[in-house]
Amino acid sequence: MSTSKTQLPSWTFAEVLSAFADFLIVSIHTILYEREIYPHETFMLARKYNFPVRQSRHPQVCDWVRNAIGACMDQMRRGDVSKISVVILSSIDIPLERFVFDMTSFPKVSERDQQVEMKNLNFSMTEMDEQYRTCIMKLSHTSSILGKLPADCTFTITIELNDDGKPPVGHDSPWVPADGITPKPDVPLKSVPPKVRPLRNVLMGPLSFDIYVEESKTKEKVVVR
Amino acid sequence: MPRRHPPPLANPKFAAALANHTFDHEDGAEYAGSEFGGFGEYFRNKKIKLQNLDAHIRGFDSGSERPPIFKGCIIHVNGYTKPSIGEIHKLVVIYGGVFSQYMDSKTAVTHIIASSLTPKKMVEFGRYRIVKPEWITQSIEAGKLLPWHDFRVIQPSESQRRLTIATVANQQENEQSKQSNPSPVVSPVRSPLIPVTVSPSRTQEKAFDTPSRKSSPLIMLSKSSEKFTSSEEHNAVLLANPNTRNSSVLNPDFLKTYYGQSRLHHLSTWKANLKLKFQSQISASSPPASKRPLDCPADTRVIFHIDFDCFFASIAVRCRPQYADKPVCVGHGGNQNSEVASCNYVARAFGVRNGMWMRRAKELCPDLITLPYEFDAYEEASSHMYNVLIGIGADKIEAVSIDEALLDVTSLCWSPNDDEIQAKSLGLAKSIRNRVFELTQCHVSVGIGGNILQSKLATKWAKPAGQYRVRPNEIAQLMKGLQVVDLPGIGYSIGAQLNERFHIDHVGDILTVPKSTLQSIVGGKTGDKLYSYARGEDFSEVGEIPMRKSVSAEVNWGVRFEAKEQVDTFLGSLAGELANRLTNLAVIGTNLTLKVYKRSENAPLEPAKYLGCGECDAFSRSYTTASPTSDPRDISRIAISLLCKLQIPVGDIRGLGLQMTKLVSAHGQDGKQVTLFQTNGGPKKSDIEVAKEKLENLEAEYSMDNDPVSTMHQPITSKLATKQPTQYLVPTQVSQEVLRELPEDIQKKILESRHSKCSLVHNFMPKLKDESQVTFEIPSHSSIDPDVLSELPIEIVKELEEQYREGNVTFRSPAKRRGIQEPNKRKFPRPTKKANSKKSWSSNTIGRPGTDSKLLSHEKLTLDSRNWEALNVDQDILRELPEDIRNEILEERKRHLLNSPAEKQNEESEASTTIQLQHPILTFQGKNQIDNLRDLLRTWLSSSLAEMQGPHMDDVFLLEKYLSRVVTEEKNLNKAVELVKWMNFQVENVLREREMDDNLERCQEVLFEWLDTTEGLQKAVSIAAETRGLYNIQFR
């Protein structure tokens, strides 16, 4: 079976994670462009996954995104992340939209094994690019579904950890769950839940994650420019 | 077939409005004049005025006590009726109904009254409630609304094609109700289920083919016990009947009776034994040493495939010439549930096939004559055939089966000229056929080709009673026309996989698919085989008998349990059966697979077949032991822990199977072992004695190269293992915190047991006979498997840690390694990192009696264990060398390693592991890819529309359930939503199309039902998503 192996090189989990980090960065830039968080002129046309994508030209934006994703990846490596979200906030910091990368079905690999080639991570580079390209395409079509945002929106990136996840390094105080971030099924809802639109489910060998976008009810009330 | 009725009203609002229509005076808007050209308005007004009239009549009649029989009905009359339309109108109105003179759309009325319909209208109104006028009059007489079905004008046509799952249960139900003559309960031993692998689909088919026993006490029981929620309770009730209990697995002699009376089991063992007999006969006759002609190229062959034509059937007809031209099959006569073992060509013309259920065969060919088996005659005939074959002096002979053989006759037939080969081989084939016919009065067919594949295919064309040679220049052409499933060794499942992925069903199409793609779909070996088969190539040789790959024992009939202990006991006896089979074949294996059939969630607690398995989901788990085994206790222990992992409620277990793979011969090189297994025929030894003897032999045999994992584990786990097997695993390690919280006495107990575990380690070693010093090297820290570590008692772990801290890498103990056959040995599963850790452990096997004098120097070897492997240097030799030379060699190897990336890669790939998918991928109707599912849904919709009948409720229910499981279990919200969107889109598309074509009204009702369905699907997905904390899913 040596022939098939040479055709389909195996990946290590660390390689997969770094490719995923790239994908997250590209996704965030795409969201920033599509949702017009920054003016379109500040973006330049680039090419990724054999697809035209936009990248912010502002060095600070780029740094910020890169650092944020870097921090996410630290947690990803420990297998603690359940969701990575890009939240679009209004000028007074009310969340309007949330792009969620639901990582609950992403496999967890002990850090010891992350440098080892995994036998069943044997999809090709092209296959992976195709999957990510589809996601980026889906993201760049969201603006037609979601409608316009009010002026002066900003954004942030949040991660949600698993319930049993360990606190990040340096935080040995107990973790207290924040209120009202995710409605629990048994707790009656205080406010109207956001509308959910699934965008894409990625399935590559044993890797799998969901992308969906949530639209808060507040958005309808905010005056659209 | 329970028909789904059209909904009471397509538009309930409209009906309510009409029924409550009141009329006050003649000043309403409807009484105003119509404008010029305002026909629409005029007509609307006219209808309102007609309703005014009815309201008026009702108003007059309100005093009388007439029951509102027709409340909610909107009735229209079509054509001539008796009573006349006027009378019906009056009756309907005064009995609370609404009468509609004009049927502007059919959904606007609930019933159409007609005595007869024109053929065109029969078709047009096919899906509506067309009722005879008697329905009105008789309903009024009865004083209540009679079911309209009894007054149908159009008799229902046969049902639409439906999704299969849902219908199976229904059909069965139906059959039950249809069957008027109650058949007696067939005694369980007379109709055992076949002990072969049953795929779920097969199981279904079986359930379908089983005759229903309407009046059997069992069915009644199952009906009455529907109220029990738990299947354990149900089983307890079922097993309360002593007869049932005796025929179930709870009877200790179950397995004996089961295998003793299973016909198919007998048949297959008989066949296998005969085949073995002929094979040994062939090897005894020692074919002449190869005398291939010198000019014959090394890879050229002439292969004969000799096969009796419908062997059993022709033997049966041989002494009953009166049946020669009648359809005949061999099987156990009478029983509808038996299989057709063989049928003659006359029967095949009717579509009867080997392996078909007798019931089906009788349907296809009512005159089919069933003849009994004649095992002696078969044996005689095939020994004649083999004698003939041995007589011709072929290079090689292979007994494929009792009626089938392969011959390599290259030396007899080969010639540089193809025509000459053709003549020679056909001549030889002819003479074989004649001789066999003289001796047996049965025809054989001979297929001739350049390799085994070609000759087997040639036999297809040779049959019946002929010979055929595939000539080299026609191979490519012949292969192209073949179906994939016609290839030997390629079954329906592979055919179906290829068809689903590439729409391939002919061999010619495979040529376009690259080998790697084939391998990725059907697996490495099969892909390879398919690839070469498609090119007419086959590299296997005649006489190469593949080693048996697996041995298994499986039971899926009579499996009912009430409690876990019963499962354990039964697994114990099943393990005994498997061990027996392994011993008979003189093999031992390392990989044990447990297969469990679990009652499907929607299957009834008791299937139609008495104690059968019904509709089941199959689960399997496998486990690799450190060393090959055939010990029943080992097997049962592993099986029990595997079952424990599956977490299937005991009451739902409907079948259990054990399969041993990765087999190796138990003989080995040492003669003693062989005699051991042969003693089985003589005086029967108790299992323990056999195990002991085996152990001693193997100790001697394996003490040189044993796997330290098993040795290290041995003492610790033996404590666990000797305990009564149970599904509740004894905790091997207890958290200190937990311990502190426990009551004092329990604490003490745990500590004690832990202590005894450790003392066992120490006590164990000196007990062994051999006192020679053995050294275990502790593996490097990195290669310790944490899973293994966690299984060790805390003391040992501490000790190990100390060792590491001190950098002291050896520890000595006066112990001898144990043989790998030691019965009480158990290795704990290490799900990941298996390959890696195994490698590192075994490469650390250094300890060896006699080498300990060199130990001091070997401590200085600091290389990581993995490098040892990669360096390709024999560690033992290396250790014997002086230190400076050794270092030089190591340096050299290191440099070499860096320069050869290939080797490096090789090393890495060996260390690679796998990642488990976090969530299962669920399938629906055998499909899980969204595109296939979309196709399925579209077909469903279009077939429904073609039949003018809405979706079947059961189908809808199944789909809803699947979608919600996709959201909750597969965690694929997107797929579920996309599918619902697709359904929506399809329905709306049809709606739009029909609107355009102006024939909307014909199928409006069906489409409304579909709209309801899609709404239901949306709801199901939304509810499922709520459990994941996602509300308000958008489907647009």
What can you see in these coordinates?
The complex is a heterodimer of chains A (225) and B (1036). Chain A is an alpha+beta fold and 225 residues long. In chain A, 32% of the residues lie in helices and 25% in strands. Chain A has a single domain (11-164, 178-222), classed as HORMA domain (Cell Cycle, Spindle Assembly Checkpoint Protein, Chain A, 2-Layer Sandwich). Chain A has helices at residues 2-7, 13-34, 59-77, 125-140, 142-146, 218-221, and strands at 43-48, 51-56, 81-89, 95-102, 154-161, 195-204, 207-215. A 5-stranded antiparallel sheet of chain A has the order 5-3-4-7-6, covered by helices on one side. Chain A has a two-stranded antiparallel sheet with strand order 1-2. The longest helix of chain A is centred in the N-terminal third of the chain and has 22 residues, at 13-34. Chain A starts with a helix and ends with a helix. Chain B is an alpha/beta fold and 1036 residues long. Chain B contains 43 helices and 18 strands. In chain B, strands 9-10-5-11-12 form a 5-stranded mixed sheet. In chain B, helix 16 packs antiparallel against helix 18, helix 41 (953-968) packs antiparallel against helix 42 and helix 42 packs antiparallel against helix 43 (1000-1026). In chain B, 33% of the residues are buried. The chains are: A alpha+beta (225), B alpha/beta (1036). The interface between A and B is large, with 45 and 36 residues.
